[in-house]
Specification:
CATH topology of the domain at 2-45 and 53-108 and 145-222: Jelly Rolls
Bound molecules: 2-oxoglutaric acid
Number of helices: 5
Oligomer: single chain
Largest sheet: 7 strands, antiparallel
Length: 255
């Protein structure tokens, strides 16, 4: 394992390379390929334009809330979760695992990881308070805890981080079998996205040839339902007090 610390570019952002071995990658892929995928017209979450699986809890993109507790995360992910906790990458064990599959032409639109809000009628629609401080002010709990992790399997990709005030963009290489850790500003003050391109070139000239990519995203659900306060004045808020962890941003998960 090798930690690549991006905190000089974005506070709270790091990538741990070789987080899982090749053998572990194969078992993680075999495990999900035996399970049922949803998305692309298949329930739950038929509206998603890529295939997904959820474990621990079922989050509905349509209703913007957690609908069901499935139970503990599956056994095939136990050793990965143990490693996450051993390295103190999350303050609390994850209770939600989202698996995304990206094939040719599939990516994910810019969104803040604190909230998976969606409107079916628009591609980029909603934003929410996303800090504990702001939660108290707005009485609007966020759904997920302060660290979000995503493990890249089968393919590398470039994740683009764009500050919610639009002033700063950083492209980060997520190598195959690495895990990216989003906390602090990376988690609350930046949107992240992945392009649909099969050949991606980052702003600093790194080129990635994408293949089928499967990501395991680990989160801790802290509330089942988020506020309807869409926080559309997020930009104004973050400009007003850029140091406070209270920025919100528009999010979209539709692609
Ligand atoms: O695929 C990834 O690594 C990120 C997934 C993600 O950001 C999400 O599903 O919200």
């Amino acid at each position: 394992m090798r930690v690549v610390d991006y905190s000089d570019k974005i506070q709270g952002l790091s990538v741990i390379e070789e987080f899982v071995t090749e053998q572990e990658e194969t078992s993680l892929i075999d495990a999900v390929d035996k399970e049922t995928w949803c998305g692309l017209g298949i329930s739950p979450n038929p509206e998603l334009k890529r295939r997904t699986q959820q474990y621990g809890h079922l989050f509905s993109y349509r209703y913007r809330k957690v609908l069901q507790e499935y139970g503990p995360l599956p056994a095939f992910v136990e050793s990965t979760v143990a490693r996450i906790m051993e390295h103190k990458l999350m303050p609390q064990p994850p209770n939600h695992l989202l698996i995304n599959e990206y094939n040719a032409g599939q990516g994910i639109m810019p969104h803040v990881g604190s909230y998976l809000s969606l409107s079916l009628s628009m591609l980029s629609v909603s934003a929410v308070p996303n800090s504990f401080i702001f939660m108290a002010i707005a009485d609007a709990p966020t759904l997920f805890g302060p660290a979000i992790l995503s493990l890249s399997l089968l393919s590398a990709c470039i994740m683009r981080f764009s500050s919610i005030d639009g002033d700063h963009t950083v492209d980060v290489l997520l190598p195959r079998r690495s895990i990216v850790v989003l906390s602090g500003a990376a988690r609350y003050q930046y949107k992240h996205s992945i392009s649909k391109d099969l050949i991606e070139t980052s702003s600093d000239g790194v080129t990635v040839q994408r293949d089928r990519r499967v990501s395991y995203t680990f989160r801790t659900i802290i509330a089942w339902e988020a506020s309807d306060d869409c926080g559309c004045d997020a930009k104004a808020r973050s400009k007003a007090d850029p140091t406070a962890p209270r920025a919100a941003a528009c999010s979209s998960q539709m692609t």
